[in-house]
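User: As part of a screening pipeline, I want to sanity-check one entry by hand. Below is the sequence and the SMILES for zinc ion. Please return the complex as structure tokens so I can compare it with the automated output.
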Amino acid sequence: MFIRKCEMCGSEFETSSNRAKYCVLCRDKAQVMRNRSYARKKKAGISVTIGSEQICPICKKTYIVTSGSQKCCKECAMALRKIKKTPTTAAYLKGHYDYIRVNVPKGEREGIKEYAKSLGMSVNKLFLTALEEYKLNHQ
Ligand SMILES: [Zn+2]
Ligand SMILES: [Zn+2]
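Assistant: Here is the complex for your manual check:
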């Protein structure tokens, strides 16, 4: 037999296992606590409470749950739906265009987006059009 000190209540106890951490009384409590935190985790993972705040796994923003099957915020859900609905768009872009990442001065992104919108084109189209115009004017 080993004499061990209980990690929970600090009292000494006899045990046949040299790895025991808790006395007989506390061992039950420790088990209950483990079960509880497991149940809590399980609950959190499987069902989300409607009306509760969750963090979107995609954009990391907090959102309010409006349905039990909701897994990300509305914006991301909408974006995902769009991608699913128009798989040809993504495939088309991949086949016909190359991707360039354009950096714009800090804080001007929204302004550029708005400007493109006011012209009735996408930011992408605006840049391409601007490039064409630049070429025309700089021959
Ligand atoms: Zn104890
Ligand atoms: Zn999101």
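Points to compare against the pipeline: The first strand starts at residue 2 and ends at 5. The pocket of zinc ion (ligand 2) is lined by residues 56, 58-59, 61, 72-73, 75-76 (CB under 6 Å).
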